[in-house]
Amino acid sequence: MTKVDARDLQTNETDDRGRIYLGTEYANKRVTVAVVDVESDHPDEDELAAAYREASEGAEELAEEWNGVSDEVWDGLNE
Hints:
This protein has one helix and no strands. By secondary structure, the chain is mainly α.
């Protein structure tokens, strides 16, 4: 197995088809590439679920507050 020096590792962005441009220094050469880590710009399902729950709870609290204020206003108009 080939040992790799950590200073030789590079992080590159892929294009919209998942391709990475290595550079002209690798033209016409056989290159072996290992994917060590993949990061996504998109939140994962757990993050989305947590955000949805938080937004839902916030909406319920806001609706309850609005109900109380609305009742007070209507009561005030009836006086």
